[in-house]
Amino acid sequence: MNDHWRCYLMKSISTEPALNWLFIAAARGHDIVNTQEVVFLVSDVKYTRVVHVQGHGLMKIGLGHLERMLAGKGFVRISRSCLVSLAHIANIRRNDLGQLQASLRGRQETLTISKRFESAFKGFGV
To answer: What per-residue confidence (pLDDT) applies to 121?
Structure first.
């Protein structure tokens, strides 16, 4: 499926200005994922890796563009290469090196929050 069709599909599914669905390339074809199920997004050279509650996949859209498309959906940038859904953060703590780390609900991964983006988490008491 070409990129033009993907963009058309995403626009036609969304009824609000902000994006509600992502059409991602997965191991067995393509998945349509509700943005509420997206845990985090990571920039990976020419692609963005989308990690969601059921698995992960790739999109050929830059992270900055996705950040604008997901505005108002509860996503926050935690580094130059990562956006995370606030709804999927279990807790935020400092590690032994003093770096902020976000633990995710129901997942083993922890994501490091870069110094540049720590101000977004001042209200969390860390």
So the answer is: 83
